[in-house]
Amino acid sequence: MRKPFSLKLLLGMTFVLLAVFLTNPIGFQSGPFQAQPAHAGFFDDDLDVFDEVLELVADNYVYPPDFKKLFTAATDAMLKTVEKEKLSVTSVYSGKTLETNGKKFSYRLSFNKDENMQALQGVYDFISRELKGKVSKKDLEKAGIDGLMGSLDPYSLYMDKEEFEASMRDTEGQYGGVGMVITLVDNRLTVVRVLRNSPSSRAGILPDDIITRVDKQEIKGMQIHELAAKLRGYPNTQVEIDVFRPSTKVTQLTTLTREIISIETVQYKYLGDHTGYISISSFSKKTNDQLEDAFEKAEKDGVQAFVLDLRDNPGGLLSQSVKVASHFLEEGQLVVYTQGRNRNDTQQYDSVYNDRWSKKPLAVLINSHSASASEIVSGSLKDAGKALILGERSYGKGSVQTIFRMSDSSGLRLTTSKYYTPSGIDITIHGIVPEIQIERDITGLPNDNTPSGKPKDAKAPVVKPIIVKESQIQEYLKKRKETLNDDTDLLVAFAKMAINNPPQPTKGHALAKARELAEDMHHY
Prior knowledge:
This protein has 14 helices and 27 strands. The protein has about 525 residues and is of the alpha+beta class. Strand 20 and strand 21 form a beta hairpin.
């Protein structure tokens, strides 16, 4: 087992990532774990980094490793690097035979790590020797590492030195890029959110726009981190993107000039009737400081109830999610706990504040893009009975990634454990289920409240949510002579009514008020 440097990190959204930088990872403190150089014994130095990665996976991955699966993926990836060369690959029984220039090499894989390592070493030596000049040893090793990591889960990732350094810089809350949040939807690079006063917003890019090409290069088949890296870059450099807008069926070529993006993760506004609205777009190092600034404004406004908006929030730093949740909990209350591969590999995180806001009525808004740290906050507040949860089932990203620094200054992001809400809900499997489910029948957007690919567990708690349609909320507000315009957020309006007028003293009272409102709306 390698000795750690000091930092565990968990990514902000499985497939939901900040477009011009990798999402701020959710994690612990300071810097990455340091992997000690491997000594492979009878191997030469060529595969030292691969061996480091293999050992880290074998010792630390959240699930017991399947070495046959790992090495199959690694060797297949190596072979793909030379598939256009004169290399014949034939499957023979449980193995494969490679042939080129009249030379042959056969290998088979088993469930034994050491045997498979010898087979992979043989593939590596055969290709680098017989196809010398056609592919570099470095590229072969990198392909093997990427193949191995790609066989684990969507969040485990190997980063070369440049990618790793960029990822570490991103956790500071600043980056050079174009200012948008992206995700992959049906293998299409889709804009989730555009940051205010950014190159993307000034260019008129909108949520749901689809990026089809970057600098004239087709992006189909690329991984999300590769796409983000293409958009990211030094300030004052340009990137050219083709943007397809589904609503108009038009593709437009747009040139963006990169700049330093300072992430304003917290937005506050006063809604009237002693109600404050706080939106958190992600959890960076500055989030809690920005939240405390918002609380100062709310105190001056005489706020007695809050609507906390975590919709489209892909996640971020664990330490920040614990601090944010702590403002609405009692000091010492459990926020979240982790469980690793071994029974004793657990860690819990408790509330660190005894804040005046823990006594105020609170509604939390989530949707299918709320992931990772936002699920930790909403899950803890739901379980503690401190907040009414409204919207859609969250994404379901509850795995913990630990960051390791390799001996060559590259890095590894490896899933090492899973997050659970205080009541024991597996976030990855179930997500956070709202008590008030809003059906989006006006916006026309997909309303998928069962995250794609999430297995169903018969042991999961089944609580039937109160279901309200957007159109019903809209009609109810019209009957009340409320002013509606294009900026009216129907879910915020419903949340405000549920927790205020007058302020509801407990979550139970707020839930009863929401149920009463829903029944009234169903009559329209």
